[in-house]
Design a protein that fits this description.
By secondary structure, the protein is an all-beta fold. It contains no helices and 3 strands.
């Protein structure tokens, strides 16, 4: 039986470097980079 995942790779990259741990709140993942704070959510909301 082949293992499957509900996630798929989108091919997007962020032009930044990250050393902080991600934070999760209100259905979003927050990433603190050296240049900006990024919020990632399903559907781009």
């Amino acid at each position: 039986m082949k293992a499957t995942s509900p996630y798929r790779r989108r091919g997007h990259t962020l032009p930044d470097e990250f050393t902080a741990s991600p934070a999760i709140s209100s259905g979003r993942i927050y990433l603190r980079g050296f240049r900006a704070l990024y919020a990632i959510s399903e559907g781009g909301k």
